[in-house]
């Protein structure tokens, strides 16, 4: 069968490694997805987004992959740095005009 | 970029007190504002959606009489936690959007840490 990345509540990596954070979203009708980074005591910070008509989108050091067949989203961070340590959330938009719905977070810890 | 400001950033008060949290969009007009609550080590949970000039829409399980939301202008929404109790202690985060299309991003404030003694 197809391998699907599992959501892990925590991920520990060494500085310089590549990180992969997974998320399962809930609604097959969702057409817009965002990854957020949240540092302690702060609000979510936008990282990268993707629309349902795309499978992959790249930014600076980050890549988002979307697998609509299994409702799975992943965030890849290249050359992870200590400053990347935070909690990462995926969020989905069911339909235009409604609120973003957040998935479970993953705490990324980067050691130098 | 678009900025959403929340005030206060932290509040500590006694049980039974009512607490008001303000959310302002500083450089855009927010047609819609959202209020989320986040308990420690958990995700953001949507509490309510408010459109300027109309009543807020609350998510299931959120008491509208306990969490009063006012969105009287295109740049300000307030959340009042009435007769707060220790179980209301949480991180409250507001978000604002300029329009209704999915092309309009949601901008987030930096949250308000509410601690009820």
What does this structure look like?
- The complex is a heterodimer of chains A (112) and B (117).
- Chain A is an all-beta fold.
- Chain A is 0% helix and 51% strand.
- Chain A has no helices and ten strands.
- In chain A, the strands form two sheets. In chain A, strands 1, 3, 4, 8, 9 and 10 form a six-stranded mixed β-sheet that branches. In chain A, strands 2-7-6-5 form a four-stranded antiparallel β-sheet, with no helix packed on it.
- In chain A, a hairpin with a 6-residue loop joins strand 8 (86-93) and strand 9.
- Chain A is globular.
- In chain B, 0% of the residues lie in helices and 51% in strands.
- Chain B is mostly beta strands and 117 residues long.
- Chain B is built from no helices and eleven strands.
- In chain B, strand 5 and strand 6 form a beta hairpin.
- In chain B, strands 2, 4, 5, 6, 9, 10 and 11 form a seven-stranded mixed β-sheet that branches. Chain B has a four-stranded antiparallel β-sheet with strand order 1-3-8-7, with no helix packed on it.
- In chain B, 34% of the residues are buried.
- Chain B has strands at 4-7, 10-13, 19-25, 32-38, 45-51, 57-58, 67-73, 76-81, 90-97, 106-108, 112-116.
- Chains A and B meet through strand 9 of A and strand 4 and strand 5 of B.
